[in-house]
Design goal:
Strand 1 and strand 2 form a beta hairpin. This protein is α+β, with helices and mostly antiparallel strands. The longest helix is centred in the last third of the chain and has 28 residues. Helix 3 packs across helix 4, helix 5 packs antiparallel against helix 6 and helix 6 runs antiparallel to helix 7. Strands 1-2-3-5-4 form a 5-stranded antiparallel beta sheet, covered by helices on one side. The chain has a 3-stranded antiparallel beta sheet with strand order 6-8-9.
Length: 287
């Protein structure tokens, strides 16, 4: 096929020998299967910000830091240079996440580098050698659903222990090969400690996974994996080998607003009394 314009520099540099066929087109990138030497790999071409339809990107980038102060100032001002740096930061976030999660024991495609807005990475394949199916195209037995769901919850735990929340995890961002699920699409991965939306995003990620696998194993639908995992994370007790059970007692007690207001009033009254005593002491001792 004709080489896409964005891939031509990689062909010229010898990083890609041949563009084989387009694999998919998504809201943030177009993906092609390419040949690099004797191997087939993926080339993910990130779309420009003006063409990208990823919603509420600011929620995902909250807490991301840049070590270069000039770059950070430019990004804040929104200059042309700053917008370019924002794009590079968005793209590099996926490469960084892939390396970090691979080290943490999460199945993700192996990255081979990002150049000119193109990420080269491992092609996840099916038994016949073709591209692996997405999870949304896969049906399974109840037993298989329970097994794969448990594995995905293990990956969520390991991601969180590595400091990340996927942020957009669903049956559309998981591939399935003969060894099980593989997590993909990570440019929006959020810093669990620095992003105020991290907990809500983790709960949504887990709900998406549980709802999908719950179609085949309905008993999963009444579980509370996200709440269990996050509670342990907040307490500092979560570790990569922890196996969540989904059994978690939710706090159903509503806040006692009357007691809170009473405590506030008591503090204000005590402060008023303290001020009265200070004023009395000053009146008795004008010097």
């Amino acid at each position: 096929m004709k080489t896409p314009k964005r891939l031509q520099p990689l062909v010229d540099d010898g990083l890609i020998d041949e563009v084989v066929y387009p694999l998919m087109s998504g809201k943030e990138a177009d993906v092609f299967v390419v040949r690099c030497g004797s191997e087939l790999r993926c080339a993910k071409i990130y779309k420009d910000a003006v063409k990208r339809s990823f919603k509420k990107a600011a929620q995902y980038t909250e807490g991301r830091k840049t070590r270069n102060s000039r770059r950070a100032r430019a990004m804040e001002k929104g200059s042309k240079f700053g917008r370019q740096q924002q794009e590079e930061t968005w793209q590099n976030a996926e490469v960084d996440a892939l390396y970090r999660l691979s080290r943490a024991g999460v199945r993700v495609p192996q990255p081979y580098g990002c150049l000119e807005g193109v990420l080269l990475m491992e092609l996840i394949t099916a038994e016949d050698g073709g591209a692996a199916l997405r999870l949304n195209d896969v049906a399974m037995s109840a037993e298989q659903a329970r097994e794969d769901h448990a594995l995905m919850m293990q990956y969520v735990v390991r991601m969180l222990c590595a400091g990340l929340v996927h942020g957009d995890l669903s049956e559309f961002n998981v591939l399935v090969d003969e060894d099980g699920p593989v997590i993909i699409d990570l440019p929006q991965a959020v810093d669990a400690a620095a992003n105020n939306n991290a907990r809500a995003m983790l709960e949504r990620d887990v709900a998406n996974m549980t709802d999908y696998y719950g179609q085949f194993a309905p008993e999963l639908l009444g579980s509370h994996y996200a709440q269990e995992i996050w509670a342990l994370y907040e307490d500092g007790d979560l570790h990569p080998d922890y196996v969540p059970s989904g059994d978690f007692e939710l706090d159903t007690h509503s806040a006692d607003t009357d007691a809170v207001l009473a405590e506030i009033r008591a503090v204000l009254a005590e402060e008023a009394q303290r001020r009265e005593r200070l004023e009395a002491d000053e009146a008795d001792d004008p010097l």
